[in-house]
C-alpha cells in the first residue's frame, strides 16, 4: 500500500534516497530492467488475501538517457519467496548508490543497482521487486519492505547527470502505477479466497514462530531463504546465480569487519577473492555414431540416442563392438567383469552404467539404495584403460532404479585422454544389441548375464564408427574469504573456517535425478556456508570483547567454490594458501548441517590433532544437541584437502538424507533451530581453539580412513529381495569359495556367526566379517528347509 507521503517524496527526491553525486558518468544509451513479482500471499490492513503470482511489464519508448527510480516508504505484505514458506515482516526501504546493498531495517537485501535521472520524459522499464527478505512482523499488521533489484546496462559513457536533479515525473508515475497494480491483483482474489483466508488465520503464522526464536535462529532463517532461492540458480560455478552468492558472502564478510586476504596481480593489493583455474569448458562438435551390424546400417541421432562426453579424448575411432558388462575389475566375492588379459585394442567397448543389480534395479553390493565406488565413471575408465580400447560407449542400464538413466551426459571433467567416451540411451543401445547379436538377445538379457557374473560378448559382424571434436575454453572459479586478525604470540598461526558455497545448478552434473530441475542446495551446502557467515560475525565480536592482552590466532573464513566437481576450490587453497601452510594449525569444515533430526549432530576429526579432543569433548557434552564425537576425519568434503597437507581438522554435520543432490533439498526442509545450535557449539569450539596456548600437532595415524571393506571373503551373494527376520538369505554360492566348501547352498538362511545373531540385511554380516582375518574358522548356524544346521567355514582372503 502506497502512502501519499511516499509518492510526494518520490516526486521531489527527498532525503530518503541517497542519489548519486555528480561524479557519476551518464550512459548515452541505457536500458534499465525492472521486473515486478507480486507476492503469492498478501496481507493488507489485517485482511489475508491470496494474490496471483505473475509478472507485470510497463514498456514506453526508449531514450538515450539515464533514469531515476523510486520505491514506497511503506508496503504491507506477507510474501512467499520462491519455494520458501511464507515470510512476514516490516521495514523501511533505503536505496543507496549504484551496486550498493539495500538496507531493510537490520536486514540486507540482494545487491541493488540504481540508475540515474532521465534527460527525457520517456524511458523503457521492466520493474522487479525481489521479495526475498524475511523480516519479523507485528501481530496486528504484517509489513515487509520489498527488495529492489535493478540492472542498468550502458553501451558508452558521456556527460555526467545534473547534481541531485529533480526526478522525472513520468517515471515516478510509472512506479506508482506498478505498486497500484500489485495491490489491485491481490484485491481481485479476495472474494474467491476468503474461506482460505479464514482458515489460515486460525493457524500461527511462520513469522510468529521464527520471531519467538532467538536471534541466531532468525539470522539463519534469513540466510537460508536467500542462498537457496531461485535467485541463486543453484549456485553452479560460472552462472549468474553463483556470482550473486559470492557477492552475498563477500558483502557479509565486509559487514563483519573481515579484511582482504588473497594476493592479486597488482602488487601490494589484496582481495576477498581467490581466483583459480577450474579447467576447461568443452563444446563437442561434428559428433557422429554409426554401426554396421551385418543386418543393417544404423545411424544414431545426436542428443536423443547418443552424446559424446567430455570424460574422454576427442577424435574418430572405428572397430569391432565388444560388450564388457559393468567394467568392474574387483567386485565383492571375487566378481570381475573380464579377465585381466582381455585385449580390446582396435575395438569399441560397450559398457553398462552402474553395477550388478537385483530384480528391482538396485545395487547387489551397497546394501542400500545407493551405488558403491565400483559404479563410478572413474573406476570404469581406470579398468578399461588397461585393456586399450579404441573408444568406449557407456549405456544407460535398462531397469536400473535410478532416474539418471533417462538422460545423457553432455559434458564432464576429463578423466582420460586414452580414448573417446560416448554415452548412449537405453533404447538406442537395445536396438544396437538386437541387430548385432546373432542369438537375438536384448540389452536386458545382457544385463541379467552381467548381474550374475562377468560377461564378455564379441559381436564379430558389427563395426561401430564414431567421432567428434571438442573445442575447449579455459574457465575460472573463485573462493571467497576474509581475515580476522589475531593478536599477541598466536597471531601468526591460522585457523581456517570454511564450507563450500557451490551446488549443482540445474543438475547438470552430480544430480541423483538428472538435469532439468533447479537444485537449491539448501542443506548442501547453503547451511554450511551460513555457518561460516554467522561465525565470522560472532567471532569478530568476541575478539573485540576480549581483553587486549589476550593472545588469539588469526582466522580465515572462506566459502570454497567447485567442491561438488572434486574439492577444486579447497585443493587450490591448500596448494596456494595466502599464508604459509605450515602456519595453518586447524581447519574447521561445515558440510550439510541443516537436517538435524532427533536433536542429533556429529563432530569428526578430534583424533587428527593433539589437544582437539580436550577442547571439543566438554563443549559437546554440555551442548543442547546430542553430539557424536568421532576421532577419525570422515571423508568427502573440503577438509580432505587440508588433511593432505597434514593440517588437523574438525568437521561438523547433521547427516545425510534422501534429498541429497536432488531438487528436493529446499529451505522448507531445514531445521533452523538445530543448525543454529550447531553453529553456537562451534563458536565455543573455535574461540577455545583460537586461545589454546599449545599448537595442535597433526596426528597421522588417527586421520586415516578405516577400510570399510572386509579383508576376507565368504563366497556368497545375498538375496536382498528375500525378507527374513531370522537372518540373511543366500542367493548364490561361488564355486570353490569358503561357503561352497563348507556345504552352504543357495536358499540357506544364515542366522548366527560364532554364536552372534545376524540381523536381517547385509550390514550385520559385513560388520562381523570386518573383524575376521583370512584363515579364521567360523561356526555358522543356518536354516535349510525349516531345519537348523551348523557348518564350519574357513575364511579366505579377499582378492586384491
Shape: globular
Q: What's the level 1 CATH class of the largest domain?
A: Alpha Beta
Strand content: 15-25%
What CATH architecture of the largest domain would you give? 3-Layer(aba) Sandwich
Q: Report the oligomer.
A: single chain
By DSSP, the count of extended strands is 35
The amount of helix comes to: 10-25%
What value does the average pLDDT take? Answer: 77
How widely separated are the two ends?
72 Å
CATH third-level topology of the largest domain: Aminopeptidase
CATH superfamily descriptor of the largest domain: Zn peptidases
Unreliable runs, pLDDT <50, ≥5 residues? Answer: 1-202, 701-708
> What's the alpha carbon Rg, rounded to whole Å?
31 Å
Query: What structural category characterises the helix and strand content?
Result: alpha+beta
Task: Tally the helices.
Answer: 17
Write the topology of this structure.
Blueprint: H1 4-12, E1 30-33, E2 41-44, E3 47-50, E4 78-79, E5 87-88, E6 103-104, E7 107-108, E8 125-126, E9 129-130, E10 147-148, E11 151-154, H2 169-188, H3 194-201, H4 206-211, H5 215-227, H6 240-255, E12 262-263, E13 270-271, E14 273-292, E15 297-299, E16 306-308, E17 315-323, E18 347-352, H7 377-385, E19 391-395, E20 421-424, H8 426-436, H9 443-452, E21 457-484, E22 494-500, H10 522-545, E23 554-560, H11 568-575, E24 584-590, E25 600-604, H12 612-622, E26 626-630, H13 639-643, E27 649-653, H14 672-691, H15 700-703, E28 712-713, E29 716-718, E30 728-733, H16 738-742, E31 749-753, E32 756-757, H17 763-770, E33 777-784, E34 787-794, E35 796-797
Parallel strand pairs: 1-8, 17-18, 18-19, 19-20, 22-23, 22-24, 24-27, 25-26
Antiparallel strand pairs: 1-11, 2-3, 4-5, 6-7, 9-10, 12-13, 14-15, 14-21, 16-20, 17-21, 21-23, 25-27, 28-35, 29-30, 30-31, 31-32, 31-33, 33-34
Amino acid at each position: 500500500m502506497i502512502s501519499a507521503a511516499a509518492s510526494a517524496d518520490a516526486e521531489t527526491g527527498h532525503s530518503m534516497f541517497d542519489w548519486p553525486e555528480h561524479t557519476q558518468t551518464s550512459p548515452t544509451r541505457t536500458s534499465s530492467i525492472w521486473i515486478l513479482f507480486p507476492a503469492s500471499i498478501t496481507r493488507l490492513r489485517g485482511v489475508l488475501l491470496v494474490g496471483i503470482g505473475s509478472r507485470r511489464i510497463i514498456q514506453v519508448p526508449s531514450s538515450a538517457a539515464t533514469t531515476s527510480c523510486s520505491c514506497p516508504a511503506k508496503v504491507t505484505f506477507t510474501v512467499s519467496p520462491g519455494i520458501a514458506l511464507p515470510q512476514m515482516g516490516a521495514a523501511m526501504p533505503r536505496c543507496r548508490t549504484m551496486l550498493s546493498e539495500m538496507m531493510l531495517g537490520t536486514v540486507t537485501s540482494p545487491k541493488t543497482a540504481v540508475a540515474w535521472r532521465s534527460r527525457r520524459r520517456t524511458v523503457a522499464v521492466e520493474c522487479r521487486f525481489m521479495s526475498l527478505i524475511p523480516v519479523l512482523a507485528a501481530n496486528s499488521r504484517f509489513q515487509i519492505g520489498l527488495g529492489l533489484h535493478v540492472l542498468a546496462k550502458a553501451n558508452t559513457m558521456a556527460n555526467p547527470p545534473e547534481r541531485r536533479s529533480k526526478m522525472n515525473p513520468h517515471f515516478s508515475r510509472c512506479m506508482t502505477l506498478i505498486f497500484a497494480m500489485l495491490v489491485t491483483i491481490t484485491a481481485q482474489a479476495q472474494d474467491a479466497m476468503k474461506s482460505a483466508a479464514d482458515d489460515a488465520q486460525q493457524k500461527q503464522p511462520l513469522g510468529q514462530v521464527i520471531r519467538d526464536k532467538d536471534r541466531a535462529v532468525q539470522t539463519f532463517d534469513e540466510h537460508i531463504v536467500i542462498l537457496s532461492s531461485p535467485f541463486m540458480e543453484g549456485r553452479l560455478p560460472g552462472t549468474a546465480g553463483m556470482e550473486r552468492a559470492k557477492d552475498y558472502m563477500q558483502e557479509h564478510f565486509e559487514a563483519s569487519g573481515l579484511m582482504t586476504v588473497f594476493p592479486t596481480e597488482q602488487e601490494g593489493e589484496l582481495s576477498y577473492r581467490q581466483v583459480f583455474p577450474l579447467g576447461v569448458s568443452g563444446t563437442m562438435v561434428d559428433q557422429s555414431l554409426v554401426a554396421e551390424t551385418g543386418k543393417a546400417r544404423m545411424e544414431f541421432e545426436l542428443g536423443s540416442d547418443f552424446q559424446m562426453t567430455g570424460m574422454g579424448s576427442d577424435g574418430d575411432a572405428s572397430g569391432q563392438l565388444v560388450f564388457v558388462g559393468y567394467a568392474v575389475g574387483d567386485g565383492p566375492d571375487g566378481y570381475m567383469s573380464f579377465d585381466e588379459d582381455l585385449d580390446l585394442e582396435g575395438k569399441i567397448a560397450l559398457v553398462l552404467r552402474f553395477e550388478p543389480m537385483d530384480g528391482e534395479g538396485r545395487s547387489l553390493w551397497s546394501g542400500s539404495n545407493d551405488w558403491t565406488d565400483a559404479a563410478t565413471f572413474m573406476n570404469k575408465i581406470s579398468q578399461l584403460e588397461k585393456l586399450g580400447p579404441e573408444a568406449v560407449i557407456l549405456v544407460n542400464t535398462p531397469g536400473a532404479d535410478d532416474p539418471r538413466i533417462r538422460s545423457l551426459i553432455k559434458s564432464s571433467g576429463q578423466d582420460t585422454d586414452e580414448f573417446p567416451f560416448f554415452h548412449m540411451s537405453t533404447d538406442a543401445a537395445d536396438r544396437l544389441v538386437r541387430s548385432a547379436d546373432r542369438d537375438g538377445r536384448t540389452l536386458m538379457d545382457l544385463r541379467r548375464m552381467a548381474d550374475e557374473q562377468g560377461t564378455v560378448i564379441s559381436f564379430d559382424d558389427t563395426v561401430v564408427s564414431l567421432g567428434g571434436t571438442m573445442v575447449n575454453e579455459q574457465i575460472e572459479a573463485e573462493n571467497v574469504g576474509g581475515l580476522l586478525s589475531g593478536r599477541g604470540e598466536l597471531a601468526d598461526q591460522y585457523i581456517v573456517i570454511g564450507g563450500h558455497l557451490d551446488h549443482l545448478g540445474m543438475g547438470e552434473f552430480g544430480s541423483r535425478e538428472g538435469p532439468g530441475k533447479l537444485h537449491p542446495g539448501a542443506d548442501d551446502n547453503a547451511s554450511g556456508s551460513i555457518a561460516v557467515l554467522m561465525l565470522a560475525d560472532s567471532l569478530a565480536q568476541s575478539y573485540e570483547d576480549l581483553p587486549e592482552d589476550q593472545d588469539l590466532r588469526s582466522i580465515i573464513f572462506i566459502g570454497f567454490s567447485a567442491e561438488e566437481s572434486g574439492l577444486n576450490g579447497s585443493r587450490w587453497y591448500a596448494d596456494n594458501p595466502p599464508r604459509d601452510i605450515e602456519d595453518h594449525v586447524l581447519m574447521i569444515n561445515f558440510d550439510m548441517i541443516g537436517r538435524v533430526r532427533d536433536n542429533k549432530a556429529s563432530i569428526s576429526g578430534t583424533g587428527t590433532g593433539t589437544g582437539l579432543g580436550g577442547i571439543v569433548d566438554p563443549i559437546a557434552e554440555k551442548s543442547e544437541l546430542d553430539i557424536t564425537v568421532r576421532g577419525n576425519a570422515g571423508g568427502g568434503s573440503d577438509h580432505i584437502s587440508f588433511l593432505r597437507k597434514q593440517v588437523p581438522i574438525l568437521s561438523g554435520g547433521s547427516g545425510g538424507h534422501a534429498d541429497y543432490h536432488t531438487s528436493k533439498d529446499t529451505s522448507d526442509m531445514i531445521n533452523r533451530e538445530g543448525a543454529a545450535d550447531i553453529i553456537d557449539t562451534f563458536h565455543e569450539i573455535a574461540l577455545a581453539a583460537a586461545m589454546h596456548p599449545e599448537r595442535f600437532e597433526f596426528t597421522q595415524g588417527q586421520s586415516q580412513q578405516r577400510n570399510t571393506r572386509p579383508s576376507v571373503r565368504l563366497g556368497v551373494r545375498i538375496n536382498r529381495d528375500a525378507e527374513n527376520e531370522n537372518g540373511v538369505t543366500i542367493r548364490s554360492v561361488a564355486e570353490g569359495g569358503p561357503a561352497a566348501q563348507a556345504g552352504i547352498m543357495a536358499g540357506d538362511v544364515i542366522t548366527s556367526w560364532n554364536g552372534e545373531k545376524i540381523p536381517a540385511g547385509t550390514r550385520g554380516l559385513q560388520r562381523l566379517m570386518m573383524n575376521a582375518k583370512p584363515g579364521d574358522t567360523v561356526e555358522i548356524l543356518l536354516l535349510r528347509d525349516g531345519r537348523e544346521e551348523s557348518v564350519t567355514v574357513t575364511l579366505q582372503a579377499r582378492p586384491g
